[in-house]
Design brief:
mainly alpha; globular; 83% helix; Growth Hormone, Chain: A
């Protein structure tokens, strides 16, 4: 078991998941609730607020979906990965800090897009660091620990913020307390990233060259052709696009959807907090089970579970049902994300990990774009988001079929 102990670098990599997960926790809970209050104070209906939020979320991830392969390919050159990671880290934190001082719904959306772009771009480089900081044998375990500790660690600044919002000490207003919670998360994000910035060194890389930018586009074309001819990789990444669409949409739109069907803010926040605590041991357990049964088999099980979750969510209209949904998502969420990342990391060439993870990210981000857009369309067209939940089931089924084809395909 000694070879399964985490190294210092692996721990520092995992710690960044703790750092940035605090932001995505806000994206899943406090930020959309705060935006809805800003929008409704200007006369928007709850359905319109949900539609606007879904549209803007789609725009934010679409921008990165287009840029991710290019950014990833540039980061594959020597000493570029950390520089680009740091640049977008600062952009994301700056956007979150700006949210801490924004009280108008339009500027709030602008700063949210900036913060989301910084966060998402960082994850392209962070995910690709996995091939530098560990071995293929430990990849499932390290990736699972990243998501697991991210879930539990993100609760610390979130709980501090929620206590401020619920108790309103020192005469704070609800708006001020919420904005302070954003500020606390920005500080948490920055401080816990420092160990990774100090210890990480790019192991697998391409040598620098003068025609770097033009060479990037040449490499992107070559990589795209390689992916097309590698059926195992192609079917997996297409399947990933479909099923992760549903996973990410459930994460990002859960509070907006819950509010629309009448679930109170306090019930939603506490239930989603429970999701984090359940996801922690389940993500670690997923890494252990993957060693015994294989990552791809567990991914298929989780996809089937998400189909059941969508069916249950379609008829959701009671607080206790939202709690049940939160538990079910907590069981599946960490495992499917962590094992998808590590399984993909084993399929790709290490020295081009950023470029390949850029393509991985473009599929993930187009999924982020497509899912919320489905919910937004249903909210505007049918005056309800529930039909969007049913549409996600189709995506999970297609994803499952493609993953099965990937298993059977040759390289």
């Amino acid at each position: 078991m000694s070879n399964q102990k985490l190294t210092k670098l692996e721990k520092n990599w995992i710690l960044y998941d703790v750092a940035n997960s605090a932001f995505i926790m806000l994206v899943s809970t406090t930020i959309p609730i705060f935006f809805r209050s800003l929008a409704e104070s200007k006369g928007f209906s709850p359905e319109s607020a949900t539609g606007i939020w879904g549209t803007v979320t789609s725009i934010a991830v679409l921008i990165l979906a287009i840029l991710s392969p290019i950014l990833g390919a540039i980061a594959d050159y020597r000493e570029m990965k950390k520089k680009m990671f740091t640049s977008f880290l600062l952009l994301g934190i700056a956007g979150l800090l700006a949210l801490s001082f924004s009280g108008y719904w339009v500027t709030f959306l602008v700063f949210f897009v900036i913060a989301r772009i910084g966060y998402t771009a960082c994850n392209v480089f962070y995910d690709s660091m996995l091939t530098d900081i560990t071995t293929d044998e430990k990849m499932d375990m390290v990736s699972s620990h990243g998501f697991a500790w991210g879930y539990i660690g993100s609760c610390v600044p979130f709980i501090i913020g929620i206590v401020l919002i619920f108790t309103l000490p020192f005469g704070l207003t609800t708006q001020t307390a919420t904005q302070i919670s954003f500020l606390i998360t920005a500080i948490w994000w920055m401080v816990l990233t420092i160990p990774l910035l100090r210890s990480y060194k790019q192991t697998y890389c391409l040598e620098n060259r003068k025609d770097k930018l033009s060479h990037v586009f040449h490499r992107l074309g070559e990589t795209f052709r390689k992916i097309k001819t590698d059926q195992k990789l192609l079917f997996f990444i297409l399947g990933y696009f479909c099923y992760i669409d549903g996973v990410n949409t459930i994460i990002s739109m859960s509070t907006s959807y819950g509010a629309e069907v009448g679930i109170s803010d306090s019930n939603m926040i506490l239930a989603l907090l429970l999701t984090q605590f359940i996801a922690f041991p389940c993500a670690i357990l997923s890494g252990k089970l993957a060693k015994k049964y294989g990552a791809i088999k567990l991914v298929k099980v989780f996809i089937c579970c998400y189909i059941a979750i969508c069916l249950f969510g379609y008829q959701l209209d009671k607080a206790w049902e939202f709690w049940v949904l939160a538990v079910a998502v907590g069981i599946c969420q960490g495992g499917i994300q962590a094992l998808s990342r590590s399984y993909y990391g084993k399929l790709i060439p290490k020295e081009e990990s950023n470029e390949y993870f850029g393509f991985f990210d473009i599929f993930g981000k187009f999924a982020d774009f497509f899912g919320p857009l489905i919910i937004a369309f249903c909210a505007f067209a049918f005056n309800s988001s529930t039909y969007g939940i049913l549409a996600l089931i189709v995506l999970f089924i297609i994803g499952l079929v493609l993953v099965i084809r990937s298993e059977k395909a040759s390289r």
